[in-house]
Structure formats: structure tokens, C-alpha cells
Write a structure and sequence with these properties.
Layout (H helix, E strand, L loop, with lengths): L15 E4 L3 E5 L5 E6 L2 E4 L4 E4 L3 H18 L6 E6 L2 E5 L2 E2 L2 E8 L2 H7 L6 E11 L8 E2 L1 H6 L5 H23 L3 E15 L2 E7 L7 E5 L9 H4 L5 H11 L20
Antiparallel strand pairs: 1-2, 2-3, 3-7, 4-5, 6-7, 8-12, 9-10, 9-12, 10-11, 12-13, 12-14
Helix pairs in contact: 1-6
The structure holds uridine-5'-diphosphate (UDP).
Length: 265
């Protein structure tokens, strides 16, 4: 046996399927699987603002793994299979529906600006919005009419997506409330998963502090990507706090602000 032969395909030889702003997708070990790699890159305002924040990818890999695993456990289908290492997870290959599904519980961000509602105002009920996933156009908000007219999803698929979004919102709201965090809003993406001739819609991409607004219940401190968008600093510390509260990182795993995050593989 050649002891110098690597056990895994080196990163450079793996086939890269897609590279996005914060993640890379590689070909998976079996047909129908992919490897999702979390980078440290942070972007905002349609990529006009960009930075590399050491440790962010490792934290998002862990937090998203935790959330997707819990969703799988309660019967909300997701693309997640298992974590592979600090930055990578094995996922099922799905056909991504080109929509960002935003669920809001409290007014913030673009909703607060667009409708002139003060940030932090509780909404009368949870609101679902759709943005068309297109970087060149800056992810414009679209209605169900646009979605069905342009064939991005069928009316039945929109119903399924909205039912999934409500379940994810209810689950996440409770999960975060239990650890003293208010889920203000979040973005999720869905994909079509084929099993033989049957197709079902599953939750895909990631759910992490990059794609949620998370406020501390008592102080209203922001524990999410708004720290980057608004140049507040302390992003890794905030994401670490979220991971710790969820019980993902143990108390002594990483002292606040002390270099790269240690994560158990
Ligand atoms: N969001 C996201 N990716 C995007 C745009 C928004 O993950 O490209 C998330 C964002 O973190 C927030 C929610 O979607 O939790 C609603 O964002 P909003 O429409 O208010 O836009 P923003 O103010 O973040 O540009």
C-alpha cells in the first residue's frame, strides 16, 4: 500500500460545481450528493461590500448543520446529510428554485425602509416575501404572479414552499426563544429533490446568522450579519455566542475574541 496516497481527494482535484459568495459546492462522493464548503467571505449590498472574516465559515457550518439536523428530526425535509469536517457538509443534490424566501416576524432591514415602519416593531403576523435570485438584478422582490408567470415555480410548489417556510419559522422562533434570542427574520432557499419519479420540495442552502436576524431578547444586541452590514464589528464573537447558546460549542471551547474558532470534528 502506498502510504503517501491521500485518503481523500485533495481539494484542488475535486470537481467544483459552483462557487458563490460565501460557499463552494463540490462534486460529492456518490451520485446525487454534493459537498457544501463554507468560506470566510462576507458580502453585503449586492457584493459592493466584501471582507474575509476568519472563523465565520466554520461557525456557519456548525450552526447550519445543527438547524438542518433538527429540522430533519422533526420531519421538515432538508438537503442536509451530515457534516464532513470543520468547513464542509455532505448534502443531497437538488435543483435550486431561484427564489429567496424571506419570513419576517419583526420589522427590520428592507421592510422597515420600504414601508417606513420603525425597526423592532412586532408585525401583526408573520409575513412571507419572495425575492428573485439574480445577483445582476440585485435580488428584486417578486410576487406569486411573477413566479408562476415566468415559470420559476408552480402554484402547488409555492403552496409547499410557504407551508415549509411557516414550519421552519415556528420551529426556529421557538428554538431561539429558548436561548434568549428573538428571530426577527430569516431567508431560506428551497430545492426540488427527486427520489425515483417522485419530486418533493426540501429546504436547501444554509440557515445561519448570515441569513437570519437574531436579536438578544433583553439587550436587543444584534447577533447576526447586520454587524458586518453596519460596520459594528464583533461578528465572530456574536456568531460564537449563538453557537454556544445552542449548545454547539462548549463553554471552554473558545475564549471570546481569541483567534480562530476551535470546533470538534
Ligand atoms: N437575506 C439574506 N440574503 C440576502 C438578502 C437578505 O440572507 O441576499 C436575509 C437577511 O439576513 C435578513 C432577511 O433575509 O435576515 C431579510 O432581509 P432584508 O430583505 O431586510 O434585506 P437586507 O436589509 O438584509 O438587505
Amino acid at each position: 500500500m502506498d502510504i503517501n496516497k491521500p485518503r481523500y481527494t485533495p481539494m484542488s482535484r475535486r470537481r467544483r460545481i459552483y462557487e458563490g459568495k460565501a460557499k463552494i459546492l463540490y462534486e460529492g462522493p456518490e451520485p446525487g450528493t454534493l459537498i457544501q464548503h463554507f468560506k470566510d467571505d462576507a458580502t453585503a449590498f449586492n457584493s459592493k461590500k466584501h471582507d474575509v472574516i476568519e472563523g465565520k465559515g466554520v461557525l456557519n457550518n456548525r450552526i447550519s448543520e445543527y438547524i438542518f439536523q433538527r429540522l430533519n428530526d422533526i420531519g421538515v425535509p432538508t438537503h442536509f446529510m451530515r457534516r464532513l469536517n470543520m468547513r464542509e457538509q455532505l448534502i443531497r443534490e437538488v435543483e435550486i428554485i431561484p427564489l429567496e424566501v424571506v419570513v419576517r416576524n419583526v420589522a427590520a432591514g428592507s421592510l422597515a425602509t420600504r414601508l417606513g415602519i420603525e425597526e423592532g416593531t412586532q408585525l401583526p403576523r408573520s409575513i412571507i416575501e419572495f425575492n428573485y435570485k439574480n445577483d445582476q438584478l440585485g435580488h428584486p422582490m417578486v410576487s406569486e404572479e411573477h413566479i408562476t408567470a415566468f415559470g420559476w415555480a408552480t402554484p402547488q410548489e409555492i403552496d409547499d414552499i410557504m407551508a415549509l417556510a411557516i414550519r421552519v419559522n415556528d420551529f426556529l422562533s421557538g428554538l431561539f426563544l429558548g436561548v434568549g434570542i428573538r428571530l426577527v427574520d430569516f431567508k431560506m432557499e428551497c430545492g426540488r429533490l427527486w427520489e425515483n419519479d417522485l419530486m418533493r420540495i426540501v429546504v436547501a442552502d444554509e440557515i445561519s446568522p448570515d441569513s437570519c436576524r437574531l436579536w438578544d431578547i433583553k439587550s436587543n444586541d444584534k447577533l447576526d450579519k447586520d454587524r458586518f452590514r453596519r460596520d459594528m464589528g464583533g461578528l465572530v464573537e456574536a456568531y460564537t455566542d449563538v453557537a454556544r447558546r445552542l449548545g454547539i460549542l462548549s463553554e471552554n471551547e473558545r475564549p471570546q475574541g481569541a483567534g480562530p474558532v476551535l470546533v470538534k470534528s
